[in-house]
Amino acid sequence: MVQERRILYEHLDVPNINTFDVYRQHEGYTRFEKAIAEYQPEEIAQMVWDAGLKGRGGAGFSTGEKWSFVPRDIEPRYLCCNADESEPGTFSNRYVLEKNPHLLIEGILICCYAMGIETTYVYIRGEFTLGKKMLDAAIKEAYEQGYLGENVRDTGLNINIYSHPGAGAYICGEETGLIESLEGKRGQPRNKPPFPAVQGVFMKPTVVQNVETLCNLPFIVGNGVEWYTQMGPTYADTRKDPPEPDRNTGTKLYCISGDVNEPGVYELDLGLTCTELIEVAGGLRGEEVKAVIPGGSSAPILTHYELDTRLDFTSLTLAKSMLGSGGIIVMNETRNIVDCLLNIMKFYAHESCGQCTPCRWGTPWVRDIVQRIADGEGRQTTITRPKFGVTESGRWGDTGETEEIYEDLDLLENVANNIANVDTMTWNTICVFGIAVSWPAVSYMRKFRPEFEAAIREGKLVTLPIAEATVPPEENYAYQQRFIPKEFSELQETTED
Amino acid sequence: MAFIKLNDLEIEVEDGTNIVEAAREHGIEVPHYCYHPGLSRPANCRMCLIDVYLRSSEMPERQLATGCTTTVRSAPPDKKLDGKYDIIVRTDSPRVIKAREDILEFLLVHHPLDCPVCDQAGECDLQDFSYRHGHDKSRYIEVKNIPPKKDLGPDVLLYSTRCIVCTRCIRFCDEVSGSGELGLINRGSHDEIDIPRSHEGIPIQLLDNKLAGNVVDICPVGALISKDFLFKSRPWFMEKANSVCSGCSVGCNVTVEYKADGLYRIKPRFHEDINQHWMCDDGRLGYHYVNSDDRLQLPQKRVDGELVTTQWADALAFITENLSEVDAADIVVIGSAQGTNEDNYVLQQFAHDVLKTTQLGLFGQLHGEEHKFPQFTIEADKNPNTAGARTVLGYANGNVVLEGNELWEKVAGAKIVYLVSGVPERSLEDAEREALEKVDFLIVQDVLPSAATELADVVLPGTTFAEKDGTFTNSTGWVQRIRKSIDPPGEAQVDWEITQQLAKRLGGEIDYHFAGEIAIAIAENVPGYGDATHQNIGDTGIKLD
Predict the structure, then answer these.
(1) Does A98 touch chain B (CB under 8 A)?
(2) Are both B96 and B118 inside the same structural domain?
(3) Pick from A186, A350, A356: CB nearest B184
(4) Residues of chain A positioned with their CB less than 8 A from the CB of B102
């Protein structure tokens, strides 16, 4: 049985940890003091790079690398903490904000010290009223104790934190949408490049980091890189020659919800499998696992054949899904996939910011098609199209055969792919919201096609037994194309042999 | 300069040019909606997607790029592709063509099929690009959004159903007019362009700035429609003439669109140094007097205190009779700042060579207000050719061009005044009226009955800017062409022709056949106008030194 490893959440349950005094009793701010006393700013940035910390917000981009893009000769630079946790199925940042806000402040202080930043904006989701209240109180205390403001702890550093509430838009969790909203404009993502690291808040270099990423910093500084890299797998990036280590280090706050007995946030090492995770969360509620959403509602779904996938950034990417924000939703045999997709598509159609054409009008279109199928009004007409599958060469591709498919299913897949193409990973949209829409739409349809076909054929929602509802592994595009990465240490052993 | 490969063309492009413009210069169309050369580039329509090769000439970048935001820059020598190209771009690769089809399909899902009753049909980018790059049928069977039709301001209607939310109009109001009336309301597929309204839906700020009409021009579809032009004509039925706005001394380049029965609308034409892509509503909507039923069509002369219509021959004879009896010192000839350089040159020749008077004046529209916008200025001088008329009237030896009070004092003491007006809807100030009333014999050449024609002894029907060829000189010294689009009403004649006929009757040797001939004479004689022949001026004009 896998045990939780509480690092970020270690003191979460300590009474009054949100107050400065209690936080101070639990090593509070010692890591920041250590950082100032023992390291130069550049050394801290190097430590973060070496630790292999990946951004916890969704994309899993290397934090150290992101920091390296920030030009250090342009003043002022900003830190923008993304606390707009809006991905359905994700609720880990909220606990940090509500229960242990000083940890976030310490993380911000370390980041500011490392990057020479004086101003930080914490963009908090509008709905997190308690979180904002707690953070504001903590910021006030930190000012009073001299950890914020002019000349922090007589070090000559000036660091200010401002909290800013969002107005309730999903897209403001996207970094450039967040920046626009922060600047007082309509929350619509910007074109990239330029990236925020070069031109962000007020067109100045900006580091945008998720709450969880920043909360990792005190522990990297406090306990050292070596300690940190012991947690989680380090894979071999075989695209590079010679292979380079691809670190998925540290712990992750997994938010487990859905059909499990003890849903909640669990802090675990990266790299556990879905099955292990469900066990940690008190086991499945129901008979069998039908499907698992591994990283918030925008991640492609995993079927019960794919439950051995390890939940870390690299493994899930290579399994044609993503870890995203770590919001894991488990579905048992009673769940109807068409209904689930409808729920998700309603959300995305409502949240599309409407800035660019494909997303503005494609997203509601996809929703309408799914709605029609769920209402039993899917068209019975079929069309013939090329069949994709495992070809003679053993790879996924056009088999040269044709298949009959309901027109509406082809339309659903096609429209979603026109917003953002799941197979080539190209999108016609400005931001990645497009792929966040088409990933679920296409993956649900392809992996649970019998259930969609049943809904059209029967004219109503039909929940099939799992074995019938799921496309078998040999026809599952993701299963066939997935690649299970090797651990770096393993690879070295084999080369030594 | 950067050396780029665009499809199979190898072209030199200036640094900083974007791909849409570079391609346009070489005859390759990159369809686009949100991009407008005069505005910022949000790249939100996603129509101008192109394949870009940045790192290798074999493999394009994984994502398609938007042509409008991809600017060309010279690469350092070691980064050049194939050793010579700064960038390689394909606008015709299969995936670009597919991307265009897909985007067009999305653009059309909520767009109504009301082209038969839409004013934009025929000059609609959505229509054109659908035809050239789109699918032949729609796969959309769901319910369409039907947002309401909105009255935005004095001249602008919004058919929200047709809107593709390219936000050109919003950016125009933010960046060029600086008035910021327009914005988006709602979110996602319910995005609508709107003006600020109270909770009851009552407008609290109309789109009524003086540049508002430009949003109609830049709207790539038929969403923003001019009330003035609504349901008037199909674009393809109208003839077009390149001309210059006669509304003020800025001299905006315009296209006059007309049919045999009159002008239908005026649209701005690009000029980099004068008006860029814009013009003001005063100029845009100020053409109605040209079509007026009240236009002077026949000469009139005063008989027993009443103005009665007469023949040209009669009117001219009447004038020559009176003119020949008076000393040159008692004659004042007044040119018009609304007239062309050619009109004024012939008038000046008439005064100087035939009447032997050096007393000239300049008449024009009363000064209005100056309006400054972030990227546009409407000048206070409401005449298109004040600078030109002043120079052309006054160049010859001894000529004095009087204006304002000096002129009216002189007029009050004159016996005969030949006033070429052509200024529509111009009232007379008290001093002006008094001065003109004292004149024994007043000849007024005008386009509409006016305060001046009421006092006249002879009224000659002249022509407006739309009915003659010629040149205007704007306040910054640009000499530009205006072109005849429609015929003058009735027996009205081009102003310089009237003057020439008078001159001939008085034994003068003025004999021009067309405006271009006069322009050559101006080029030969008037200092500074050496290059200003019609041939040299062309469509873009030339700037005087």
Answers:
(1) no
(2) no
(3) A186
(4) 358, 418, 428
Where in chain A are the domains?
20-228, 244-332, 337-462
pLDDT digits (tens, 9 = 90+) for A328-364: 999 999 999 999 999 999 999 999 999 999 999 999 9
How many helices (H) and strands (E) are present in chain B, helices listed first? 15, 26
pLDDT at B505 over 70: yes
Q: Considering only CB atoms, which chain A residues are within 8 Å of B107?
A: 357, 361
Contacts made by residues A182-187, CB under 8 angstroms, sequence distance 24+: A182/A80, A182/A121, A182/A123, A186/A353, A186/B184, A187/A353
| CATH code of the domain covering residue B58 | 3.10.20.740
* Contact status of B105 with chain A (Cβ, < 8 Å): yes
Do residue B424 and residue B367 come from a single domain? yes
Structure-block tokens of residue B59: 């493999």
CA–CA min distance A424, chain B (Å): 8
Q: Which string of DSSP letters, residue by residue, matches B33-98? A: SS--TTS-----S-TTEEEEESS-SSS--SS-EETTT-B--PPPGGG-BTTTBSEEEESSSHHHHH
Indicate whether B331 and B183 sit together in one domain: no
* Cβ <8 Å between A191 and B164: no
Nearest to A428 among B99, B143, B191 (CB): B99
Look up the pTM and report it: 0.94
Question: For residue A58, what pLDDT is reported?
Answer: 84
Among B residues 128-147, those touching chain A with beta carbons less than 8 Å apart: 139-140, 142-143
Distances (CA, A) of A237 to A68, A312, A488: 21, 14, 8
pLDDT digits (tens, 9 = 90+) for A291-331: 999 989 999 999 999 999 999 999 999 999 999 999 999 99
- HEC profile for B389-417? HHHHHHCCCCCEEECHHHHHHHHHCCCEE
B150 and B64 part of one domain: no
The sign of the dihedral angle between the CA atoms of B23, B28, B33, B37 is positive
Supply the CATH classification number for the domain A244-332.
Answer: 3.10.20.600
ipTM field:
0.93
Q: Are residues B338 and B430 in the same domain?
A: yes
Listed by number, the residues of chain A in 352-391 with a beta carbon closer than 8 Å to a beta carbon of chain B are: 352-358, 360-365, 368-369, 372
Q: Are B291 and B256 in contact (CB under 8 A)?
A: no
**Judged by CB atoms within 8 Å, which residues 174-193 of A form the interface with B?**
186, 191
Do B437 and B514 sit in the same domain of this protein? yes
Fold of the A20-228 domain: Rossmann fold (3.40.50)
Tokens at residue A278, please? 């469900």
Provide the CATH topology of domain A337-462: de novo design (two linked rop proteins) (1.20.1440)
Whether residue B284 lies inside any domain: the answer is no
Give the range of the structural domain holding residue B338, as residue numbers without chain letter.
300-543
Interface test with B, best of A352, A355, A414 (most B CBs within 10 A): A355
Phi, psi for residue A404 in degrees, rounded to 5: -90, 135
Among A333, A330, A339, smallest CA distance to A292 is for A330
Contact yes or no for B188 and A349 at CB 8 A: yes
Residue of A nearest to B47 (CA): A357
Q: Which residues of A touch B165 (CB under 8 A)?
A: 354, 357, 360
Contact across the interface for A358 and B103, Cβ inside 8 Å: yes
Q: What is the pLDDT of residues A80-138, one digit of tens each?
A: 999 999 999 999 999 999 999 999 999 999 999 999 999 999 999 999 999 999 999 99
Q: Is the residue at B293 inside a domain?
A: no
| Interchain proximity A361–B44, CB inside 8 Å | no
Write down the pLDDT at residue A238: 82
Domain boundary residue, one of B67, B100, B133: B100
Q: How far is B270 from chain A (nearest CA, A)?
A: 28
Residue A52 near residue A229 (C-beta atoms within 8 A): yes
